[in-house]
Amino acid sequence: MVQWAERYRRLSKESSNGGRFIASRVEVARGPMLWATEPGVSKITLMACTQLLKTTCIENIAGRFIHVEPCPILGVFPKDDAAETFSKDRLAPMIRDTRVLRDLFGDAKSRDSGATLTHKQFPGGHITLVGANSPTNLAMRPIRLLVCDEIDKYPLSAGGEGSPIDLAEERQAEFKANSLTVVACSPTIAGRSAIEASYDESDQRKPYVCCPHCAAWQSMEWEQVRFDKDEGGKIVTASARYECVSCEQPWTEAQRLVALRKIEWRQTASFTCCGENQVPEQWAPEAYGVRRALCRSCGCEAVPNDHAGGQASKLYAPKQTIKETVAKFARALRRGPEALRTFFNTQLARTWKEGADAPEWQDVYARRDDYLAGTVPAGTLILFAGADVQKDRIEVTVWGFGRNRERWLIEHRVLTGDTSRSEVWTELEAMFSETWEHASGSEMMVRDWGIDSSAFTAEVYAFVRSQAGRGNVHAIDGQDSYSGAFLGLGNKDSTAKGKKLRRGLKTVRVGASFAKQELMGCLGLQRPSGDAPFPAGFVHLPRDIPEDGVRQLTAEELVVSVSRGRTRREWVPIGGRRNEWLDCANYARGLAAMRGWDRWRETHWRGLEDALGIQRTTIAPAAEIATPAVAAGSLADRNLKRMAPRSRVRSRTR
């Protein structure tokens, strides 16, 4: 691939490097171009900063296939106008200035059936450029080479028929043995970035350079960029430098440019071999622009290379100095979160986490309690339950609430069955009579049950009406509100004239956004050491809770965006996780707020403990507050004497 580009490719006069293509000008792009002919590679993911290597690699890969291995080629772009722009600004100049391509395409005019703006034929194949929003264009012809640019800007579904990339890859079925897919983009929002998801599925190659001081090979990361600040806390751009991760010696700009002349791409994805999980520490000699990871026990190539993925930031750009990169960072800091997001995406090739981040599910899973699901720990004084209704099941979670705003996950149960039929609802009704054994030996019932009514409204309303005699089964109406966990009751039944019925069905309005934000903060609390008391709001999880349950509890994050000057806060799923456990927790929290859990006083807590047979903890009387010593005749002394008679009068009045 590189040999073809350096021999035949001519950059257009519109380019900043017009003339013969020289790979060493941007050495970091050499590896990704070589991967296109690497044996075993069927997909290449390029998650890179802007103006570094993405488009150049796509152009050279397409040009080489057109000339050496002619075949059907499809280029997918966010919209049709983006495809037309690529054709006019990139493809046409490449064909015009590269003689071997110009000879293949000839002097075809736009009026010819074989040469239009977005569809061009050549001997042995054709290249078609389409927008990702059209399912028809994505499913017309079989193709061998698929190139997808700016995939984070694609719609989630092409005309309601599914992922545009998946639809396009289906067209490679006839060329399965030798097809190639290339996807490229700068990343966007963490958890919602398509290029990030694709890179995570790859062998995660990173470019390594050699330190000019200690000769240690390393991947250049933003964390190794250092700079000083002045007395006002502002970044001093002139002090910016890169420091070696091993010897911590700073590099001059000249030394960085020398280091960029020799780049080794290495696989960094973790793997399992010889019965142990490993992070790559040894690599095979370089071949096809990459060093394959080796198992430290058997020495074999342990990471598959069918999906090659590369990530590169502006730290590898020879035309942008470290000082210029730091200057852009300082400017982004001054301008706010939106500018910082752009800096991370376009300069560092990293995703951006916005708003309130959900805690890492691994951290939450690691701090589980010792009790088992289905049992009620001693601190629990009352139970509430939330139910989430799906088409083929009802998921129910029972939560326990106690003092200090602490809560315990008691049990999560999945009732399978078609929710349009009565069987699964009968199973849910049977749960209403169940009891859970408290640590004190008493049996506890759930105080209130809340069932989400947003998706299957008719079924939920009918079921709640049938349970009206119980008085503790409620239809939940979740709302995007930060005012509180409980927002009041909503009347749903009315007369023929539209007047609300006082004794009709009522829904419990739950502030879902408030509940999610509170839960994420509480899940982030750390377990205290030793016998120290738990922090207020601590969320206890049973020892046998499944990993998927913790994933679902932390399945959403708060994204803050600015559109037309207005700030929008939205909770969005992370990485396609399900969120039934989280929804059930929100419904139980809303019911607890409805019953007053947030404002209960000591008398109420003692009443709950008495009902469970829990022995009260003796509370030491408050120590008498001594009158502070003040100097005689001082202002404080006169104020104390002036207040004393008033206090005695108030006491006699009471």
Automatic annotation (TrEMBL):
The chain positions of domain Terminase large subunit GpA endonuclease read: 312-598
Q: Which residues form the Phage terminase large subunit GpA ATPase domain?
A: 16-265
Q: Which InterPro entries match?
A: GpA_ATPase (IPR046453), GpA_endonuclease (IPR046454), TFA_Chaperone (IPR051220)
Q: Which Pfam families match?
A: GpA_ATPase (PF05876), GpA_nuclease (PF20454)
Q: What is this protein called?
A: Terminase GpA
The organism encoding this protein is: Methylorubrum aminovorans
